[in-house]
Amino acid sequence: MTTEFDFYGETFQRNPGATFARMISECPIHHSAEHGWYSVFRYEDIARILKDNQNFSARFGPGPAYAQPGSGAGLVSADPPLHGKQKRAIVSAFNATTIAAMEGPIRGFVTTLIDRIIHKGRCDVITDIAIPIPMWVICRMLDLPYERDKAMLREWVEVLAGAVFSKGNDALATERMVKVKALMEYFRPHIENKVAMEKRGEDPGDDLIGLLAKGRVDGERISMMEMLSFAQFLLVAGSGTTTNLIGNFIKLMLAYPEQYQKLRASPGLLDQAIEEVLRYDAPVHGLFRTNNEEIQLGPYVVPKESKICLMWGSANRDPGLFENPETFDITRDLVDLRQNVSFGQGMHKCLGAPLARLECKVFAEEFLRRIPEFEADGPQVRFPYATLNGLDNLPIRFPVSNN
Ligand code: HEM
To answer: Considering the entire predicted model, what is its pTM?
Structure first.
């Protein structure tokens, strides 16, 4: 008898933590007869798969649907040696100096967002703050006009990020195809312009598109198709996920007021608090690999090229990795906490992790300094698509202040 697990069902989507605890102890490897894919819940099994790039491939893409090898999003759908070559093209945009230089501008932007709400005494944390911050940052990195295009970009990101786990034949699939096309057409002139500059011998800049235009893989320019899918992936990877981290931070401070009081009393716990939020509520439930040969996984003989979901959120709740994993505790040791796999692990580990942490830290510093007291102001609404673990609405109210 197999233990029941429905990724798309209300029980899991409403409270993933409870399902992870059950699956870790009762059914650490699950096969869904309905959807055809396997899920891996224990940290040890996930870590083993992530280390084994010979037997487990990313080439069919990060979702349950099979992307055509070569057509999927750059980097995250590439195996060695291509992965290393693609990464070299953009890695400088993520180095420590570049990220550190973004702190001041991010703080300036966060300040303007808080200025807009502080006299109102209420706000929606997601729409007023958690969506704008990462969208503004990724627009800056991709050299896109945030003010002009933010609403349209958010709409695309929501559908595309949410659709990583789309069931394939539902209504979303059609909506998604339309959005992908529109997003590609949006990026095309922007990329063409940077490539033309580069061909004329001008410097197209060190934003991510500029770096792609200058980048070479085996001495060849990166193709237009690859750049388009790369740009699309970067926009999606950089925004919806970080929105969830920021939203989940406030959600958990509301849900665990005694933990929030500890943070207020000891602001030096902020790094741990952010890491504990990442551990306790992984912004992305899980992503996929595909096995190159038939393998044994738990009780299953898994046919070659099956889709296998690595449940990041579950590894973070594994008692083999964290003591009392069901307890939300911001005083856990930071070094231990950094073992959480919300950003993945190994070769594909999130390039944007330091940036996402910085965005959340600057947000928390500014927000909690100016709005230290807040309470729920209505029902929280869950993000409507199955991939991401976060909120769509998080209304709060707070004393009006002049700060
Ligand atoms: C809290 C926020 C974020 C979370 C939870 C997150 C999560 C992840 C995860 C789990 C992976 C691994 C994918 C895999 O192994 O299949 C990943 C990869 C990646 N992420 Fe993030 N991410 C976040 C923010 C960002 C940001 C802000 C950026 C860029 C601006 C970014 C860019 C990337 C890139 C480029 C990769 C691919 C790395 C590779 O394949 O080598 N992410 N992310």
So the answer is: 0.95
